[in-house]
């Protein structure tokens, strides 16, 4: 089942570590010449060039560690990720508490360079490593009456300042319809830029669903449940008017408080131009999953 | 000699003009950091700068609202600094608005749409509009021209402006972080302190006596 989806970017698109560390300095240098940055900033940035490791790992939403974008980078180190146990339950043939090694054993790790679009109208391009969720689901054996997959993030109050201040309800939960979960694009990431996932990026195991807003791609997963009814999803619970269960990237359906028609690529500096947001974040191959649905109502 | 008198005596020698330099300097310093991705600005400086200017504006509005209650309740008199505080608040709101329009939203069409369509932007924009006549009349000539009574009445627009600013902040965040509510709490507290408590007591207490008799 692995390799069902092919990158439109090649491994050559992944900036070597030495280069992506330097690129940042280069940008900082040119930014000093304001006018050049203004003229060239965003255009110079290739649409599919991955963001730097620094950009990807210092600008995060992971409310368990605080609501600030740099809070996860500053606070996530305290999270204990070894040992890591993932509970698989519900309508599966092989339920149980799996160690990370047991869970991922035999699954093919591949690289996927995906666009990542946050509901807050910013975006990145991220070189993930991981496996297809479909492969994992095949391994645990999905039963016939399962219709959805539910996920849950770890809660470690002693290591998570955001959990202690209860800024939202924890544990963070998310869910996918089974056909979305089985789609070749849907992956479970274990690595980033060829190294194990940094903690602020959702170590050691996270979901990546590139055609949906980033908050659907739940981090640091400790529980996967196959269920018959649509599961709860954290932001959908907090404000169903603003965050739908599907939350597919859709430039035509605004967030009630801001437009989703455009986005800003992270890393363009102070004068980065906005770019148009693409339907399904540019992953048109998922459109058939939603045939017959009114995506302005079921957003 | 009371503590307040001592403080007021000391403050008499402190001029207000350095506040303008501090305020302008800090604004430039923040911009320079954002330009170079330093400090808190990291990889996505636009939103951070927008938020930073907005938050400082709100803090300055609250500081301006503190001057009168502070004098009423403690005797400490900061009135000569209030114009600088108020004008700086306006210029930080203006900078916040410019970052929002020029750097963040980027086109006039989209700015108009945002102001009309997004209630939290509308609310913030109304607060900004309310501050414009105040900034324009924050000079001695205008006070003489308008007359102190009408001038003071006009400058009560800071009350709705501060309320709108705090509401704007609460409305734009995701989830329930504490800070926006602290700012709103401060604004409401400072406005409540301004109520005429003697009058309120006079209205409340006689009515209670009537029901007792």
From TrEMBL, chain A:
rRNA processing found in the keyword field: no
Keywords, ordered alphabetically:
Metal-binding, Molybdenum, Oxidoreductase, Signal
Entry PTM: Predicted to be exported by the Tat system. The position of the signal peptide cleavage has not been experimentally proven.
Extract the signal peptide range: 1-44
Q: Sorted alphabetically, which Pfam families does this protein's record hold?
A: Oxidored_molyb
Q: What does the record list as GO biological process?
A: protein repair
Q: Which GO terms describe its molecular function?
A: metal ion binding; molybdopterin cofactor binding; oxidoreductase activity, acting on a sulfur group of donors, quinone or similar compound as acceptor
Parts forming coiled coils? none
Q: State which residue ranges cross the membrane.
A: none
Q: Which PROSITE patterns match?
A: TAT
Is Flavoprotein included in the keywords of this UniProt record? no
At the top of the EC hierarchy, this enzyme's class is: oxidoreductase
Q: Which family does it belong to?
A: Belongs to the MsrP family.
Any idea what job this protein has? Part of the MsrPQ system that repairs oxidized periplasmic proteins containing methionine sulfoxide residues (Met-O), using respiratory chain electrons. Thus protects these proteins from oxidative-stress damage caused by reactive species of oxygen and chlorine generated by the host defense mechanisms. MsrPQ is essential for the maintenance of envelope integrity under bleach stress, rescuing a wide series of structurally unrelated periplasmic proteins from methionine oxidation.
Protein name as catalogued: Protein-methionine-sulfoxide reductase catalytic subunit MsrP
Gene that encodes it: msrP
TrEMBL record, chain B:
Any one Gene Ontology cellular component term annotated for this protein: plasma membrane
A Pfam family (short name) is Ferric_reduct
Which UniProt key words apply to this protein? Cell membrane, Electron transport, Flavoprotein, FMN, Heme, Iron, Membrane, Metal-binding, Transmembrane, Transmembrane helix, Transport
Domain Ferric oxidoreductase: from-to ranges: 56-165
Principal subcellular localisation of the protein = membrane
Q: Which residues cross the membrane?
A: 17-35, 55-73, 85-103, 115-136, 157-174, 180-197
Compartment(s) where it occurs, according to its Swiss-Prot or TrEMBL record: Cell membrane; Membrane
Reported cofactor(s): FMN; heme b
Its membrane topology, per UniProt? Multi-pass membrane protein
Gene Ontology molecular function: electron transfer activity; FMN binding; heme binding; metal ion binding; oxidoreductase activity, acting on diphenols and related substances as donors
Give the signal sequence positions.
none
Q: Name one GO biological process term.
A: protein repair
Entry's InterPro entries?
A: Fe3_Rdtase_TM_dom, MsrQ-like
Q: How is the cofactor bound here?
A: Binds 1 FMN per subunit. Binds 1 heme b (iron(II)-protoporphyrin IX) group per subunit.
Checking HAMAP family in the record gives:
MsrQ
Summary of subunit composition and partner proteins: Heterodimer of a catalytic subunit (MsrP) and a heme-binding subunit (MsrQ).
Role played: Part of the MsrPQ system that repairs oxidized periplasmic proteins containing methionine sulfoxide residues (Met-O), using respiratory chain electrons. Thus protects these proteins from oxidative-stress damage caused by reactive species of oxygen and chlorine generated by the host defense mechanisms. MsrPQ is essential for the maintenance of envelope integrity under bleach stress, rescuing a wide series of structurally unrelated periplasmic proteins from methionine oxidation.
Give the family, as the similarity comment puts it: Belongs to the MsrQ family.
Q: What is this protein called?
A: Protein-methionine-sulfoxide reductase heme-binding subunit MsrQ
Q: Which organism is it from?
A: Loktanella salsilacus
Query: What's the name of its gene?
Result: msrQ
């Amino acid at each position: 089942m692995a390799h069902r989806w092919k990158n439109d970017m090649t491994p050559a698109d992944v900036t070597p570590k030495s280069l992506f560390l330097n690129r940042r300095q280069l940008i900082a240098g040119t930014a000093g010449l304001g006018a050049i940055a203004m003229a060239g900033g965003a255009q110079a940035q290739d649409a599919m060039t991955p963001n730097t490791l620094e950009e990807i790992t210092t600008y995060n939403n992971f409310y368990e560690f605080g609501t600030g974008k740099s809070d996860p980078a500053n606070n996530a180190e305290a999270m204990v990720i070894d040992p890591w146990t993932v509970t698989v339950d519900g309508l599966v043939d092989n339920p149980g508490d799996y160690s990370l090694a047991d869970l991922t054993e035999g699954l093919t790790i591949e690289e996927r360079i995906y666009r990542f679009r946050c509901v807050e109208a910013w975006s990145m391009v991220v070189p993930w490593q991981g496996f297809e969720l479909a492969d994992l689901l095949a391994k645990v054996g999905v039963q016939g009456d399962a219709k959805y997959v539910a996920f849950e993030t770890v809660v470690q109050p002693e290591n998570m300042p955001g959990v202690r201040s209860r800024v939202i309800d924890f544990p963070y939960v998310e869910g996918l319809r089974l056909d979305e979960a089985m789609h070749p694009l849907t992956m479970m990431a274990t690595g980033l830029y060829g190294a194990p996932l940094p903690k602020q990026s959702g170590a050691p195991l996270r979901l990546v669903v590139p055609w949906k807003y980033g908050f659907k791609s739940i981090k640091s997963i400790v529980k996967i449940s196959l269920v018959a009814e649509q599961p709860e999803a954290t932001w959908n619970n907090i404000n169903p008017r603003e965050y739908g269960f599907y939350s597919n990237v859709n430039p035509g359906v605004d967030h009630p408080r801001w437009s989703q028609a455009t986005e800003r690529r992270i890393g363009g500096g102070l004068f980065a131009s906005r770019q148009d947001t693409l339907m399904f974040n540019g992953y048109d191959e998922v459109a058939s999953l939603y045939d017959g649905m009114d995506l302005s109502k079921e957003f | 000699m009371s503590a307040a008198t001592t403080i007021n005596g000391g403050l008499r020698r402190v001029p207000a003009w350095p506040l303008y330099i501090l305020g302008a300097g800090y604004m430039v310093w923040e911009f320079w950091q954002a330009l170079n991705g330093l400090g808190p600005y990291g990889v996505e400086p636009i939103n951070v700068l927008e938020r930073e200017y907005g938050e400082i504006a709100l803090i300055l509005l609250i500081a301006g609202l503190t001057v009168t209650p502070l004098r009423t309740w403690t005797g400490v008199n900061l009135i000569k600094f209030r114009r600088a505080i108020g004008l700086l608040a306006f210029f930080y709101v203006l900078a916040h608005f410019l970052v929002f329009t020029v750097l963040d939203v980027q086109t006039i069409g989209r700015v108009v749409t945002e102001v009309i369509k997004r209630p939290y932007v509308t609310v913030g924009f109304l607060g900004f509009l309310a501050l414009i006549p105040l900034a324009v009349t924050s000079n001695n000539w205008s006070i003489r021209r308008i007359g102190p009574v009408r001038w003071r009445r006009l400058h009560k627009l800071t009350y709705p402006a501060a309320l709108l600013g705090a509401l704007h902040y609460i409305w734009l965040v995701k989830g329930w972080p504490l800070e926006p509510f602290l700012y709103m709490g401060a604004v409401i507290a400072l406005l409540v302190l301004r109520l005429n408590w003697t009058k309120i007591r006079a209205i409340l207490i006689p009515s209670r006596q009537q029901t007792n008799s």
